[in-house]
Design a protein that fits this description.
- The chain has about 120 residues and is mostly beta strands.
- It contains one helix and ten strands.
- Strands 3-4-5-6 form a four-stranded antiparallel β-sheet. Strands 7-8-9-10 form a four-stranded antiparallel β-sheet, with no helix packed on it. Strands 1-2 form a two-stranded antiparallel sheet.
- Strand 4 (about 40-45) and strand 5 (about 50-55) form a beta hairpin.
């Protein structure tokens, strides 16, 4: 897995990986903030110390790991969904069993209580 970006309607694509883990990657879920499209989140399956939530504040040119909390990437073969809040660019949701929400741009997460623990969509 890797991430590519097109800025010309898909005619050409550029690999964007500066700050993302190298080596073998698994599933990657992505979300672009509707509030600020320069803010992009990626939940990345990788080796244990490098798996986690990454954030870019420049449209994907450069990435920083926000957290490698293993709760976010547990069961990565089944879940790898991330959603950017439609009103606040610093609120991000990661779906797993359970659902997690961050209000500080992905640095810390809290478990969100829901009716059912098997969450694939928001």
């Amino acid at each position: 897995s890797t991430i590519y970006k097109s800025t010309d309607g898909g005619a050409t694509w550029r690999k964007i990986n500066r700050g993302l883990p190298g080596g073998d990657l698994g599933r990657i879920g992505m979300a672009i903030s509707p509030v600020n499209p320069e803010v992009v989140y990626a939940i990345v399956e990788a080796e244990r110390s490098k798996a986690g939530l990454y954030r870019s504040d420049d449209g994907g040119k450069k990435w920083s790991i926000m957290t490698n909390d293993q709760n976010l990437t547990a069961r990565s073969w089944y879940y790898m969904e991330v959603y950017a809040d439609p009103v606040n660019a610093d609120i991000v949701w990661v779906l797993n069993a359970p659902v997690f929400r961050s209000i500080d741009g992905g640095k810390t997460f809290q478990n969100v209580s829901i009716a059912h623990g098997d969450t694939h969509d928001l």
